[in-house]
Design brief:
Distance between the termini: 12 Å
Number of strands: 2
Number of helices: 14
Bound molecules: ligand LTSJ6FE6, adenine
Radius of gyration: 19 Å
Helix content: over 70%
Order of helices and strands: HHHHEHHHHHHHHHHE
Structural class: mainly alpha
Length: 301
Amino acid sequence: MMAEVELCEKLGKDAVLALLLEVSASPKPGLVDRFSRGAHKDMDFFTFMESSAALSSYFVKCARLGAEFRGDHPQELFNSLRPLGMAAEQAMFDATGGVNTHKGLVFSLGIICAAAACCMVEQQRARVDADALCEQISRMTAGLCSRELDSLKKTEGLTNGETLYRKFGLKGIRGEVENGFPTVRNCSLPAFRHLKSQGACHMNDRCVQTLLHLMTVNEDTNIVARHDMDTLAFVQGQAQRVLDAGGMLTDQGRQMVCELDEDFIKRNISPGGSADLLAVTIMLDRICSEGTERASVLRED
Ligand SMILES: CC(C)(COP(=O)(O)OP(=O)(O)OC[C@H]1O[C@@H](n2cnc3c(N)ncnc32)[C@H](O[C@H]2O[C@H](COP(=O)(O)OP(=O)(O)OP(=O)(O)O)[C@@H](O)[C@H]2O)[C@@H]1O)[C@@H](O)C(=O)NCCC(=O)NCCS
Ligand SMILES: Nc1ncnc2[nH]cnc12
C-alpha cells in the first residue's frame, strides 16, 4: 500500500518539476523564461511559479485515480479525470489572476499522471515503457477529437482550439493526446535523451535544444491563434535554421537563439504549445524506462 502512495506522490512531484524546468530553461524564443516574459504582456516567470504551486495537489489526485482504477474501459479513467481537470484549470486561473499559463499542461500532465500510475500498479513497476504508456493514453482518450471537435455545434464562445479546428482542421493538444503524443515519442524524447547520453549540455541547454526540435514539427495552435498558418511555417523554418547552426551546442547557434527570441517578441509570436510538449518530454524522461534499462520493481517483497 505504501508503495502506491509513494508512487502517486512521486508522479505529482515529477509533474511539478516538469513545469518548473520548462519555464526556467532560458532563453526560449517568444516564451516566458528566467530572463524575460517573451511575447506575453500578462505573465512572467513568477506567474508560472504561482501556477505550478497551485497545481501540485491536482497531479497527485490524478495519479491516485489512475492507481485505483480497476475498470475494463480506459475511457472511464479519462472521464473521471475531467472534473478534476476543470477544477485545476480554475485553480490555475485563481492563482494567476485569470491568466492562461498551463491550460494545456493541466490536460496533458494530468492524463499522463493517471495513465502512468495505472500502468505502474498493473505491472508492479516504478517506471513504464514510453510506448506502452502512450498507448494507454491513446486508449483513454479514444474519440476525444470526434466528440469535442468534429461534433462541435456551438457558434459562440469557442476556445482557440475549437476555432482553429473549424478554420484549419488543427487538432492541437487534443490530437496530440488522442494519438499518444507522437511528436514527443518520435521527435523530442529521442532528442532529449540523445543530448543526455552525450553529456555535452546541461539541463538548461538540453531543454532549449529540445524545444527547438519541437518547434520544427509541432502544429502549435498558440501560434496560429495569434497569427496564421504562414507564421507557423515561418516558426518551423526558423527553428530548423537555428538547429542547422548547432542551436545551443555552438556559439553561433546560441547567438541565433537570442536573436530569434528578440524577433519573436517583436512579432508577438509565442510557441506555447511547444513549451507544453517540452514539459511533457521532461516528464516522460523522468518516469519512463530507457530501452533495455530494467524497470525497478515497485515492491521489494
Ligand atoms: C482540452 C482543453 C485543454 C482544450 O483547450 P482548447 O480548446 O483551448 O484547446 P487548444 O487551444 O488547442 O489547446 C489548449 C492549450 O494547449 C496547448 N497547445 C496548443 N497547441 C498544442 C500542441 N500542438 N501540442 C501541445 N500543446 C498544445 C496550449 O497551451 C499552452 O499555451 C498557453 C499559454 O499561451 P498563450 O498564448 O498565453 O495562450 P492564450 O492565453 O490562450 O493566448 P493569448 O490570449 O495570450 O494570445 C497555456 O495554456 C499553455 O499550456 C494551448 O493554449 C480544455 O478545453 C480542457 O478540456 N481543459 C480541462 C482540463 C481537463 O479536462 N482535464 C482532465 C483531463 S486530466
Ligand atoms: N514558458 C512559457 N511561456 C509562454 N507560454 C507557455 N506555456 C507553457 N510554458 C510557457
